[in-house]
Structures are given as C-alpha cells and as structure tokens.
Amino acid sequence: QAMLEPTVVPHLSTPSPHACPGPARALVASARPRCCTSTAAAATGAGPLVVVLVSAGALGATASAARRGFRTTRRRLLGHGRWSSTQLRAMGGPVEGRSCRVAVIGGGPAGVASCRFLAENGHKPVVFEAGSDFGGIWARDAPNKVVYRGLVTNLPTVAMQSFDLDFPAGLPSYIKGADLGDYFVSYAERFDLNKFFRFRTQVTSVRLAEGEGEGEAGADGGSSAGSGGSGGADTDAWAVAFEGAEGRGVEKFDAVVVAKGHYDEPYAPEILGQRAWLAGAESGARTVVHSREYDDPARHAGRAVLVVGGRSSAVDVARELRGVARWVYVLEKGCQRLMSVGGCTHLPLGAALRPDGAVEVGGEVAPGPPVDDVILATGYKYVFPFLDSEQLGLEFGPEARFVEPLYMHIVHNRRPSLCFVGIPLAVPTPVHLFEAQARFVAAHLCAPFSTLAEREGWLEARRAAVGERTQDLHFLSADAWNYMRELTRMSGMAGAEYEVYERRLALVAEVYADRVAKRPQLPWGDDWFRRCQYTVDWEAGTWQVSLPEEAQQTGTDVPAAL
C-alpha cells in the first residue's frame, strides 16, 4: 500500500479484532496486527497494546465512526475500572466518563471557550450572560464598561486568535476593542454556541443543592453527604438562582463553571500621603479614580496626573495623557530610580504625595508641578457575590487578591464540580489560556483524574512558591506557556494533534517575545509597536513582521526617539 498510518487500540484479553467496537473492528480484522507491550503501557499497568497498520484510504472512510466506537470502549473501560482516566487519556482523546449539565457563568472570552469544549465533550452547558451578546467586556454593548474609548489591543491578532478560527482578513495586527468583541461573536457562530446561551440573565446565587452540603468533603474530594461512593466531580449537585427579562428562577446542575472574569470591583490601594494630599485642597479640586473610570484623556487636560501601576492599562493611560495633561507622573514597582524626561516623571515604590501636591522620593522632591489627579491602574479584586464562600469553603484573602482552594488555578479542591476559568494573571495570550483551561474542565468533568491529596499538594507547593506575596498566587507570566501545555496534555490531547498544537503555541510564543522586545522603554513612550504588521504561516512554522516607517528609517527595531 502506498501509505500506512498507525493507530493504537487497547488490548483487552487476547490480540483479537474484538478489542475494537463497531466499524473499527472491520479495520482490525482486515489488517495483520502485531502485538507488543509498550513501556508506557507496562508502566501504567494497562497491559499490551495492539498496534495496527491501516491504509490511509480505509481509515479515512470510517475514521469518524471508528473514533466514536473507540471513545465508547474507553468509557466502558473506565466505568468497569479496567483503566484509570489518566491511563485512558494517555491513549489519546478525551474520556467520556460522564455527561454533566453545567452552569457556565459569564459569556465573555472564557465563557464562550468553556461552552465550546463542554459541548464538544458531550456535556450540556447553559451559559448565563448578563449582557445582550457574546464577548463580555469586549461586546459592543457590554454591561461592564471597563474598555476605554481609544483602546487598541496590545497583542497582534495572530497571537490572540484561537488556532481554530482566524481573525477576518484585512484587519491590522493591532485592532480596536470593538473588533475583538466581533471576533467572539464569530467564535460563537463558528462553534454553534447560541443555543446554549441565556442573554440578559444575571446569576444571583450558586449554592450546594439541598441535602448536598450537610457534610464535609470526603478524602476523595467528594461530599460525604452527597451521593457518596464514587468521589470526584459527580458527588455534588448545585442550585443556581438567576433573574432576567423573563423573571426569576432556580435550576439544578451537576457542575458550575465560573467564567465571568474579574473586572467588576477595582483594587484601589491608598498611596502614601494620599489623605493629607486630598485634604490639602478645596473639596473636589483633587481627584482619585481607578482606571476603570478612565475613558478619555481630555478630562485631564492641563492637569498634573499621577498614574499608579506599571502594566498594560497604566502604560496606555500614561501614553494617552502625554501631550494632553500638563504633566504625567508614573509610579510603579518596575522603576528603579527617580527619572524625569520632558513633561513626565518616573517614580519608584516609596514615592509619597505631600499636602502641597509635590511628590517626594526618599526626601527628594521629584521634578514637576503639584499633582491634581491620581489614576489607579492597580488591577481588580476577585469578587463573586453569587458564591456563598462560607458554605463552599472559599477564601479570597483580606484584599480579595486570590482564590483558594483551587487546583491548577481551576478546580475547587474539595468541591471539584465547581471550576473557574480565567483566574490567572499576567497571561501572555488569554484566548489560548482560556481554551486550555476549558479543555481541562471538560475532561475533568467527564472523569476526574486527581485526588484530594494531589489537589491539596499542588496548592501547598504553589503557596510555598509565592511566599508572603499571596497576591501572586495566580500570577503566571512566562510560566503560562508550560502551564497551557500541561493542561492540554492532561485534557487528553496526544499524538499528532498535540504535536501540531505545541508547534503552533511555540510560534505564538515567538511572536509574543518579539512584541515584548518592541514595547516602549518608558511607560509613556510612543506605542510604535502597534503599527507593526505580523503574518504567520502555520504550516511552515514561520512568521514575519513588517516594521512601521519610523523604525525602518533607523535600520533597527527601536525608533530614534521615545
């Protein structure tokens, strides 16, 4: 035969075609199987494997049916205890151990990804979205107005999009917020998600259903008061209360996925000297606002503004204010020393406001006029008012800067049918992370593959890694790439499919690193990197970037002046 492709099926008792159900059996019977025991199979106790060489044409004719039959076999094996879910996942593909009715709270990027993978894995999701469209904060008519008017994404489209759906042709690499919202509408259409959504519907309460919360979670992660013996994600039932245009209601679910983001309640720490500074002027003359309330630099025209924070929002606000505000100060932990350039001053931690409006650093008065306004670009709290934290054993810390106890930043350790998608911070490419977490959740709800001891051990290791900086519990940054790979492997992706995924993720990581190298050296610097254009050839594994004219003239990736 001109072309042969290997496929692997579990060997039950003898090397017989009956190891496969349905249409796959015919393929096995017509081939000449060679039985061997792989190292991996021996290590897991799964026994020998039948490795069958099947012609590509024959396989293509019945591939879909064969995969369905193989998944059925895996489900039966799992139910009969022949293999663990982890061992079956190692054979490739998801384990369909159970179909759950799942309440997904939030229809933004994390919500649409969760809905997609839950449905693809045989679950029955119901998505509650407070707004009128897909996309959450990116929707054109978003109920949560945290996206300011002039926002342009700080990631190129090739690094933002799902591997299964490109952005429309003709868009620049860096797009407006509304374009990103439109993308999530297209994502929902591509994967036929509309039928799972309930728009203009707000979840008001999520509680263990009556009779489910009477005992502590057992050692296997299940509830000792619930269905008892099996443990894992199928032992709790949930009562979800909601209200919307059609009134109020309560429905019962097997599992809950919280995917609503965490952009509702700003984290607004008081900076040094803030109270005396506010008292040092007439009421209303000086202001302190969170970047959530920022929309247009014109509001601060002719005023001296102190921006607190060093991440994306702070950088964007400082850049927009330069040339409009009288003076821009930026206070952030990334600054190592006091520095002033033109009408901007960079301030390290420890800088304090004085009653007269001046800024003091270590006894030295920073260059610049008295501060009129403070904008806190300091992030958000984890606030989920619909969750009964006492009943569910959830902890958020004194300033609501983390969520515990979560395994892999996703699964509630002791109530594993309660999951969260979108908790991590400092994520290089959010859509890829949401999809990796959603795959993981869908596989986990089919057949949990962790014990309570494993989940608690993971959390203890994470706590030890961050030490006293509990606000960094969910901080990923460069670790995000390996985190996404690990989640994807754990969810069951294997073989050639995983190799393609890993190559594409590595390519995205290269594009992201190039984008990071081009960011401004100072917070208020020119955002010329947003005028770069990226193209990617996924099949060839290559990418290119076209630099804007100002960078080309200098013959370098860095413009002549900031």
Describe this structure in words.
- β23 and β24 form a beta hairpin.
- The protein has a six-stranded mixed sheet with strand order 11-19-12-13-15-14, with helices on one face. A five-stranded parallel sheet has the order 6-5-4-10-22, with helices on one face. It has a three-stranded antiparallel sheet with strand order 1-3-2.
- The protein is globular, with a radius of gyration of 27 Å.
- Residues 1-95, 214-234 and 555-562 have low confidence and may be disordered.
- The chain contains 15 helices and 24 strands.
- The chain has 562 residues and is an alpha/beta fold.
Structural class call reads alpha/beta
Bin the helical content.
25-40%
Determine the strand fraction and express it as a percent band: 15-25%
- Please report the distance between the alpha carbons of the first and last residues: 63 Å
What's the Cα radius of gyration?
27 Å
Shape: globular
Mean pLDDT comes to 82
Count the beta strands.
Answer: 24
Strand order of the largest sheet: 11-19-12-13-15-14
Please report the number of helical segments. 15
Major sheet size, sense and barrel closure: 6 strands, mixed
Low confidence ranges: 1-95, 214-234, 555-562
What does the secondary structure layout of this molecule look like, with pairings?
Layout lengths: L3 E7 L11 H8 L4 E3 L2 H6 L4 E7 H24 L5 H6 L10 E5 L3 H12 L3 E5 L28 H4 L16 H14 L6 E2 L2 E8 L29 E7 L2 E7 L1 E4 L15 H6 L7 E4 L13 E5 L3 H10 L5 E5 L7 E3 L2 E4 L4 E2 L5 E3 L2 E2 L7 E4 L12 H4 L13 E2 L3 E2 L5 E3 L9 H17 L5 H15 L13 H11 L4 H23 L15 E5 L4 E5 L2 H6 L8
Parallel strand pairs: 4-5, 4-10, 5-6, 10-22, 11-19, 12-13, 12-19, 13-15
Antiparallel strand pairs: 1-3, 2-3, 7-8, 8-9, 14-15, 16-17, 17-18, 20-21, 23-24
Helix pairs in contact: 1-3, 5-11, 11-13, 13-14
